[in-house]
Write a structure and sequence with these properties.
The structure is a single chain. The protein has about 325 residues and is α/β, with parallel strands linked by helices. The protein contains eleven helices and twelve strands. Strands 7-8-9-6-5-4-3-2-1-10-11-12 form a twelve-stranded mixed sheet. Strand 5, helix 6 and strand 6 form a beta-alpha-beta unit. Helix 1 runs parallel beside helix 2 and helix 2 runs parallel beside helix 3. The relative contact order is 0.16. The model has no long low-confidence stretch (mean pLDDT about 95). Bound molecules: S-adenosylmethionine and iron/sulfur cluster (SF4). The site of iron/sulfur cluster has 12 residues, from loops.
Length: about 325
């Protein structure tokens, strides 16, 4: 089995299919313009599926398509069609802001998509507009219910919680998800990329999130799916619904992190907080064989030592952490 320098296998692959987005969430992509990746540098669906197949041979069981906003990539269902039948792949998922989901759901489902995660940080339309700068809550809700109607399951909703911005939306989101059969996942606000001016003051910790929910709806901890998922899950004592919190800041899960990432322009990245990627696209375009590409991937994984979130927590605890001192690849190109 392929393992990294800290004995972690490779089990999940997150593929960013585009760096473009139709939203400008203030915590992710606050600027209007970025240095966009040139179209010809973006991996084709054939290149993506070739890489995916190699990763699956190394033990990847789960693939998530993300971005940027994956649904702004034309004909995404054609990629799903290529990935869904991969032998050994147990789970294929899409993370989306939901704005285009209602109009795309039929071809996506037909192509083999079984489930989606939709990001929704508030149910207040005005605030939603402020947080996403370009988003329309009605469209996102239409998308979520279209996915439900089409039979995709489970439908998970993701909310990044930012202090003073949407921490008062935690309970309304819990109630909405419980009432409609969605699984709610709260995400601690992270210092991804370099543009979001993250400070720990904006962070609402997992502990706080759970206390707030449990005070109203008692919870029982279930733990991490398969022991390695980013989210720590809880069920409600009354049996209605489930929630989880992704606490990469206050409870880092580096020691069990089995995720590799492929950027929209074909770089392999071994941590969400990396400052470099390994250019696999150039090798593919220069005619490398599957065996050569496999060796390239395996070598990268064998040398992997990343444990950025664990180091950040150690630094935060000793009050020496300065998020700006560590340059990172923007989340839009490496895939959240
Ligand atoms: C980068 S987005 C890409 C997929 C899609 N556009 C979406 O919004 O779901 C993937 C996930 O990263 C989360 N995210 C973005 N910036 C974040 C931050 N600073 N801290 C925590 N999560 C963040 C988003 O909320 C979303 O759930
Ligand atoms: S979180 Fe998703 S929807 Fe929001 S700006 Fe980032 S990529 Fe776009």
């Amino acid at each position: 089995m392929l393992t990294d320098a800290l004995q972690r296998p490779v089990k999940d692959l997150r593929i960013s299919v585009t760096d473009r987005c139709n939203f400008r969430c203030t915590y992710c992509m606050p600027q209007d313009e970025y240095e966009w990746i040139d179209k010809k540098e973006i991996l084709t669906f054939e290149e993506i599926s070739r890489l995916a197949q190699l990763f699956v041979q190394f033990g990847v069981e789960k693939i998530r398509l993300t971005g940027g906003e994956p649904l702004v990539r034309h004909d995404l269902h054609l990629l799903i069609e290529k990935l869904a039948p991969l032998e050994g792949l147990k789970d294929l998922c899409l993370t989306t802001n939901g704005a285009l989901l209602a109009e795309r759901i039929e071809p996506l489902k037909h192509a083999g998509l079984k489930r989606v995660n939709v990001s929704i940080d508030t149910l207040d339309a005005e605030k939603f507009k402020r947080m996403t700068k370009r988003g329309d809550l009605t469209k996102v809700l239409e998308g979520i219910f279209a996915a439900k109607q089409a039979g995709l399951a489970p439908i998970k909703l993701n909310a990044v919680v930012e202090r003073g911005v949407n921490d008062d939306d935690i309970l309304p989101l819990v109630e909405f998800s419980r009432a409609n059969g969605f699984a709610m996942r709260f995400i601690e606000y992270m210092d991804v990329g370099n543009a979001n001016n993250w400070t720990s003051a904006k962070l609402v910790s997992k502990k706080e999130i759970i206390e707030k929910i449990a005070a109203r709806y008692p919870l029982r901890e279930v733990g991490r799916e398969q022991g390695t998922a980013p989210s720590v899950d809880y069920e409600f004592v009354d049996g209605q619904g489930d929630i989880g919190v992704i606490a990469s800041v206050t409870e880092p899960f580096c020691s069990s992190c089995t995720r590799a990432r492929v950027t929209a322009d074909g770089k392999i990245v071994t941590c969400l907080f990396s400052n470099t990627g390994h250019d696999v696209k150039s090798k593919m375009r220069a005619g490398a064989s599957d065996a050569e590409l496999g060796e390239f991937i395996a070598n990268i994984w064998r040398q992997r030592t990343d444990r950025y979130s664990a180091e950040r927590l150690e630094a935060m605890n000793s009050a020496t952490y300065d998020p700006k001192s560590h340059k990172k690849i923007e989340m839009i190109s490496l895939g959240g």
